[in-house]
Amino acid sequence: MSLVALAACVSMIQANLLLPLSGKASDSFAVMDLMRLPLGILSGMGFIGAGAILRRDDFVVGVTTAAAMWFVTVLGLCFGGGQISLGLIGLALGFIVLNGLRLIEDRMKQDHLAKLGLVTESSGPTENEIRGLLSAGGFRIRSTSVTMLRAGADRELNLSLQWRANADQTEVPEAIEALARYPGVVRLAWNPQAK
User: Fold this and answer.
1) Are strands 140-148 and 185-193 parallel, antiparallel or unpaired?
2) Which of 47, 78, 91, 65 lies closest to 1 in space, CA to CA?
3) Suppose 109 and one of 98, 152, 157, 164 were both cysteines; which one would form an S-S bond, judging by CB atoms 3.0 to 4.6 Å apart?
4) For 81-89, which contacts have Cβ atoms below 8 Å and span 24 or more sequence positions?
């Protein structure tokens, strides 16, 4: 971010240094357009910011980073253009927006992903019972795979789960702990996925 702001600042200073040379000379038909440099920088940062936005499954990440890069570019143009007070006011407002919205975002429910691996005995819960328990616990099953370990006996189920919870809730959900205590469940592996 510092390099982006510095680059924008230097380019705006360069545009200001070229300002006395702008205008139409009496013997020339050409006119220098000094706003092309800052406009080109903003367009280029929009392109670079778009590259910071990634999609992972159902999650889109990097939007805040892209917006922050574009915002820092504008701040650099303000500082480089000599509008120090406007740049400082923009910087203060940017901090308020980013930090204030972070507090709100931390209190909102977000989508979480996890992999659940179960080994059950033949007397254990059926796949439909497991689905019912997980649905009652607020989980959405995204995918399932079943492996029979012995003919008519043990089964291994691997499920990909999605649920909504606060960002700071990192403990194992109660529905998963209840499933681990369920009769006939031999082994349970819980693996939360990073976004």
Assistant:
1) unpaired
2) 65
3) 164
4) 81/12, 81/13, 81/15, 81/16, 81/38, 82/16
CA atoms of 185 and 164, how far apart (whole Å)? 25
pLDDT in tens, 61-71: 888 888 888 88
| Residue whose C-alpha is closest to residue 109's, from 132, 138, 136 | 138
CA pair distance 59, 19, nearest whole angstrom: 46
Task: Give kind and range of the element (H or E) at residue 93.
Answer: helix 84-107
Query: Could you tell me the CA-to-CA distances from 74 to 60, 67, 99 in Å, in that order?
Result: 24, 11, 19
- CA nearest 21: which of 6, 42, 41, 37? 37
At 129, the amino acid letter reads E
Place of tokens 């992999």: 115
What is the CATH class of 109-193?
Answer: alpha beta
What are the structural domain ranges in the chain? 2-107, 109-193
Q: Lowest mean pLDDT: which of 30-44, 67-81, 90-104, 123-137? A: 30-44
Q: What is the pLDDT of residues 105-123, one digit of tens each?
A: 778 888 888 899 988 887 8
| Whole-number Å distance between alpha carbons of 186 and 188 | 7
